[in-house]
Amino acid sequence: MNKENLSKTEFPVCTTLEKTLNTSTTSKGNAVFKNNNSWITGQTIRIRFVGGSVELQNKIKEYASEWTSAANLNFVYVGTNDESDAAIFFETGSNYTFGRSINFGQLSNPNATDEIIRGITLHEFGHLLGLHHENQSPAANIQWNKPVVYDYYQRVIGWSKEQVDSQIFNALPTSYYNTYTPYDSSSVMTYSFPASFTTNGFSIPFISSLSITDRMFIAKAFPFPVKSKLYAGDRITANNRLTSPNGNYTLYIRSGKLVLYSNVEFRDHGHISPNIKFSNATSSNIYLEIRENVLLLFKGNVSKTVGPNIPVGNIQYINLNDSGNIEAIINGVVVFTINMKTDL
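RESULT FIELD:
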């Protein structure tokens, strides 16, 4: 296979790293990254890019936000020279996560498709949040055809037998990694491989989206507070969300718009129309707020109206009901309802 022409059939790889106290620079390694990042539920993680085109950076931002649609965390991107919690590099080579640094070694390749970029972005941000390779889960029982796997990674990637063992075969020790789900072959955190890599013909295609288990696991690790009502003076933001009483729906801000998310189907169920959206905006500077008799979506001091104006009285609160509809309440009476699936 031609290493210069990146495609799904070449199985983009990730070299995770072991962080040591006496290491001052990032380099490729052959050990599974241990989560020492200690992110706190609700934290805003400041991330800076070192290199990469603006177009590529914007794609990474978009795809990485799939994690924060499920986890109570927020990604904010700062300038290259600004103080940050994590950094993204584009040095030639493999993709890897080292502590709080990500290297997208394969994404600068002009042949990298949007699907490749999305899958690699989700995988490496998963490592940043503390997740590990699913194929090395203690629950995985993959029947590897080891001679074939050794040969492939030695020829195409240049790995030694020991590196293949560390990155592919060795199960994570349960004494240290004691929180894991049943093996999930659809997880974005697993390696993709062809049927020839196993003795029983089992294979995994390139994965470019979060699985249901990925979303459930990260949501439990970084849970959102459960509330269904927004009162005057409060705001809906990327991290301050509304959840329906039955837990089936969540209303939040993402990519400059108001989004209704299904916690049952693990996907967006509806969103606000294009004319009630702020483009070129990060989720951190957009919020929804009640202002007297109207519901407004704000970017700084600029606002757009959501729903009708109420001619008499002020809105006391809005409620996200069990059907995923927004209800505006005055004196205990629903004065208007917005069906996010159809009205907008």
